[in-house]
Structures are given as structure tokens and as C-alpha cells.
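Q: Can someone sanity-check these two? First one:
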Amino acid sequence: MDRRAFIGALAGGLLAAPFAVEAQQAKNMPRIGVIVPVEPESPTEPNVSAFRQGMRSLGYVEGQNISIDYRYAHGKDDLYPELAADLIRLKVDIMVVGSWQPALAARKLTQKIPIVGIGMGADPVRLGVVASLNRAGGNVTGSAWLTGKEVGGKWVEFLKEAAPRIVRVGYLSDPRIQANQTLTLEAAQAAADTLGVALQVFQARGLDEVETILTQMGKDRGSGLVVQSALFFMAHASDITKLAAKHKLAAIYATTVFMDAGGLMSYGPSLSDLWSRAAIHVDKILKGAKPADIPVERPTKFELVINLKTAKALGLMIPPSLLLRADQVIDW
């Protein structure tokens, strides 16, 4: 080989080396598939951002030592099997899924790929997602969403405190997830009985049914509204909060998604905290732990958010005692 050919071969080898290293790194890089149920497609969306930050805090940097593929359902539960199947085709090492419906859809398609579910309902065992909370069993672990005693009663209590003239509370529920709401509804009923408030359960499968229910409630002065934690309602947060405002209904919601849409109050587990803590489960699994052996966590951080602008529009004076307990007060 002459000198020119030798130098050419050497240069070519030097240029190829980094690409070979990158290819090897990409091949060995763990791949995570994430199903986002309702939140918009944005890396800065609070819950997705919390998960990304949680991963970074544990030393995982996207594109460097881990690969993450995001799939968005936009509140359409019929997309969960399709999205899960897509991630399976990509041969992801772990799936991270928001809520119990996509967790259940993913588990039906694979019993091999570890699944980390975020906020998997009030009772993931009863829903058939895991075998037990202490030892998840199978390939699914993660976190539960809430329990009735922690939230259901508080919804009615906070609503009555914010709007003392309320004598009736409509509890808006999605019948498709009724099994997930028994404990919460029981706690809400107990609180209503204690406060001398009539509680009436309304079921809605579509936005037109929601509109009919809220229109009827708006005709009865002294009515308040509780909106349960259902992905269908979250997907239509803007429409529901506008209807509540139109019919002058004081309402409390299960998640802060409704506060972004102008809701009066929300109380429930911090979704951002649950998404952030999902990174801890991912880290454990990547280090060799089996999902079957990892306990399902319960929420530890709860948030009360109050919108004073909405309260003013409804003619409500939120008492200082309630404002002092709020984790966030919106006044713009």
C-alpha cells in the first residue's frame, strides 16, 4: 500500500470509528416506551416534563444513555391497544403508562415487557391490573391513583366550605369505570350525610350527556358539582369547566387539568409527583428488579388548588381558612 492509500485508509477508519461507537451505544441503550393518556404532545407538558426530570435526576439522559419513545392517546381510550402494540413492535425494554386503562391494555398484549403504571385507579387489584399492592405479581407495577377516604370526602367538604349555600351536590361519574370509583363515592356520600347535603350521582358517557346534566343542575339554585377522576372528563376539561361556569355551578375537580381550563377548585394526588416517581420504578427495573417484586405505591402528595378569578365570577368569597390550606391559589 502506498503512502497516499495508507493515509486515506487511516482517515476513513478514524471517521468511521465514532459512528461505530454511536451505533453500538444506540444498540445497547435501554429503550422506554411511554403512553400518555390525555396530556398534549409536548416535552414541556407538566406531567411528561416531571417524568423526564425524574429520569435525569437518576442519571438518565435521553439520546445519551437512554431512548424514550412517546405515544399520545389524546383521551381516546380505544387507542391504548394500538399504541401499546406499536411500542411492543419497537421492542421497548419497559413501558410507562398513565392510568390503569392503558396499563391493562398493555398487560393484555404482553406478559414479558415490564410495565410501570402511573395512578392506576383507586384499587388496581380489583381492576385486575396487579395481584396485590404489596407484591404486584406479573409484569406490572407502579402507583395507585387515590383512595376514597383520602379524596372523596374532601371533595364534598371543600365544596361546601367554598360555597356554604350548597344544599345539593351532583357527583358526575363515568359508568365505564364504575368499578374504580366505589370507595371514592362511598366517602363522598358519608361526607354529604355528615354535612347535611344531598348527594346525587349522575352518569355520563358523552359530552352531550354532561351538558344535559349540568343544564338541569343549573336550574336548581344551591347545587354544587363534583367531577370524578375519569380520563374522559379530563379529555374534555375545557368544555366541562365552561359548562359549569355557564350554569353558575360551584365545582370541584379531581385533577389540576381542570384548573388549567379555568375550574374553581381541584383536589387530588399530584399527577406530576406520580409521573416523577415513575422514574424510580424504571430505574429499579433497569438495574435488575422484577416488576412482580416491586410494591405498588400509593400517592403521598395531594394538592388543593383554588381559582379566585372563577370564584369571583360565581359570586363566591372563599374563606381565608380554606385559602390557607391551598397548595396553590390562582388569582389572575
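And here is the second, same format, sequence then C-alpha cells:
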Amino acid sequence: MGRHYKGVADMLELFRRATEAERQWAAHAATLPDDDKRQLFRQWWAKASAAQAAGRYVRSCPHYLRGLTCGARKKDGTLCRSTTLCANGRCKFHGGASTGPRSPEGRARALENLKLGRLKRGDS
């Protein structure tokens, strides 16, 4: 190893083991089906969003998740091949539209916003 202090040599050995374990995991993850990869993508996205909100550095998407496609069925029966995925692991077209507010408080807020918008435009 060279003429390092004992602590440095130990840290280098730990780093080597960690990179080897990460390499093995990446090789395993590359063989997973797309549904499992999409689940891994959602987990990565949640961690990355939390780190970014806390102001920490966010690593780019792991290489075994790059190129992951949406995979949703289109109207013509083929699979969507879009690779720009959102937090849920689907593209912007297949992520699902909002169904609106569910709670009574949310519905009241939406109604109030609707009334305010009409007042600003001058509609009755």
C-alpha cells in the first residue's frame, strides 16, 4: 500500500470495499425489470428532493437508472418511450392528472380562489 499511516491505509481499504459493493449492486440493478427500476428511481427521487430542500449537494441519477423509459401504455397499445421522468417514475403525459382537492378545507380554498379570479377579471 505504500508508506501511509495505519489510519489512512484502513480508510483506503474501506473505500475500496465500498466501491466494489456499489459496482456489484449496479451490475445487479442493471438486470432488474423496469418496474423494479422505476421503484428504485422513485426512492432516489425522494432522497434527492429532501437533500436539495435541505441545501445539500444532490448526486446525479445512478447510471443504472439512466435511460429508464416511462413504460406506460399509449392509446395505440405501444409502450411510451419517453425518458424524462417525474417523481412518480412516469413521464409528464402519463403521471396522472390532478383529481382536485379532496378535503372540505381544500375544496373551500379552491372555491374561494375561483371567486377571487372572477372578481379580478370582472366576470359575474
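A (reply): Looked at the second one. The helical segments are 6-29, 34-53, 104-121. The CA atoms of residues 84 and 91 lie 6 Å apart.
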